[in-house]
């Protein structure tokens, strides 16, 4: 049986997604995309829908938790079930390590599980990863629930982000029994945790109401959190992530997923801590301009770049390195007159 690839798009992404799939000639029996809902942004002061000069700014996607209801309402859930598909693997589109794993699928079928969440050990680079927990009510443990960063009070954020209380976090790689999902939704008691996301739009303080797809775990009895290798979690959410994945710290596999290099694994190094000055590296266009050459990061544990620095030649960065440009004009990495930067601070 072939495995279809189906994207959940928002009104912001569907056009571009389809253009790219058409460009590469991707075809399959099933639709390649379905559209999630959109909801109004609300004024923080009175919870009424906002009004903007740009009407598109008045709306937002309601988070990736919308996937479950959207699958049902678009008819895709029934179509998949009718065509013999029992289990779906769901992941964030930006996770380059997420692939269909036969071993996890076999385990889920063998144990007759309804919902599985892939977890991986937390590092200092994973402050925002969600965690699963069981809430105690009247001395009795309820079903597993997902705790997301946006739900944590500021006074407890240090506990949530630390490595003591929550030692693993959700990769948002999820496995779900489609029949069980359909049954739970149609029962009318399907619940997702609400996330209130504050934003500023056209000078107005607004709230976006969102849900996370992992919070669906609370609706099922037969669930597991599975500890998986870090290789299955390689997101690209910011330019720092993009730099790490583009470097030799990761290798592209035949199935077009990526994995951490053997040399890095053997050295006991985990995820690279990268901090790029947002004034110069936040947007992909600026990143590409300032990184015409991607440095070797295979043995780098952390890299901090302060100020505008053009990486105009191939260099190797080893250990914990800080590169600092204190001048108002950009500087070239070649000005350091070395091809290897070992642990330390390098200033222009």
Automatic annotation (TrEMBL):
Q: Which domain of life is it from?
A: Bacteria
Cited Pfam families: UDPGP (PF01704)
PANTHER family found in the cross-reference section: PTHR43511
Protein family: Belongs to the UDPGP type 1 family.
Molecular function (GO) terms listed? Answer: UTP:glucose-1-phosphate uridylyltransferase activity
Could you tell me the Gene Ontology terms of the biological process aspect for this record?
UDP-alpha-D-glucose metabolic process
- Say yes or no: keyword Nucleotidyltransferase present: yes
Entry annotated with the keyword Transferase:
yes
Name of the protein: UTP--glucose-1-phosphate uridylyltransferase
Species of provenance: Leptospira interrogans serovar Zanoni str. LT2156
Which keywords does the record carry?
Nucleotidyltransferase, Transferase
Coiled-coil positions are: none
């Amino acid at each position: 049986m072939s495995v279809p690839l189906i994207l959940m798009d928002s009104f912001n992404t569907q056009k571009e997604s389809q253009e790219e799939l058409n460009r590469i000639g991707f075809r399959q029996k099933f639709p390649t995309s379905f559209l999630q809902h959109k909801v109004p942004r609300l004024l923080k002061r009175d919870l009424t829908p906002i009004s903007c000069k740009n009407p598109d700014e008045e709306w937002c996607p309601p988070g990736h938790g919308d996937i479950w209801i959207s699958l049902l309402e678009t008819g895709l859930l029934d179509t998949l079930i009718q065509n013999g598909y029992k289990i779906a693997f769901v992941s964030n589109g930006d996770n380059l390590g997420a692939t269909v794993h036969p071993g996890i699928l076999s385990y889920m079928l063998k144990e007759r599980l309804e919902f599985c969440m892939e977890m991986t050990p937390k590092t200092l680079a994973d402050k925002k990863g969600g965690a699963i927990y069981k809430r105690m009510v009247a001395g009795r443990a309820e079903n597993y629930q997902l705790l997301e960063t946006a739900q944590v009070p500021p006074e407890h954020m240090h506990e949530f982000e630390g490595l003591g209380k929550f030692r693993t976090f959700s990769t948002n790689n999820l496995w779900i029994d489609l029949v069980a999902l359909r049954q739970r939704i149609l029962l009318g008691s399907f619940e997702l945790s609400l996330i209130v996301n504050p934003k500023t739009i056209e000078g107005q303080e607004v709230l976006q109401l969102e849900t996370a797809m992992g919070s669906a775990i609370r609706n099922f009895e037969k669930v597991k959190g599975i500890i998986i290798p870090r290789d299955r979690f390689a997101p690209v959410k910011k330019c720092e992530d993009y730099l790490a994945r583009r470097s030799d710290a990761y290798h592209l596999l035949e199935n077009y997923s990526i994995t951490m290099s053997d040399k890095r694994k053997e050295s006991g190094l985990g995820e690279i801590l990268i901090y790029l000055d947002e004034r110069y590296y936040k947007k992909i266009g600026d990143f590409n301009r300032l990184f015409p050459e991607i440095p070797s990061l295979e043995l780098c544990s952390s890299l901090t770049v302060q100020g505008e620095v053009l990486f105009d030649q191939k260099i190797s960065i080893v250990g914990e390195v800080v590169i600092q440009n204190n001048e108002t004009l950009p500087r070239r990495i070649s000005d350091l007159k070395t091809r290897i930067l070992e642990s330390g601070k390098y200033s222009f």
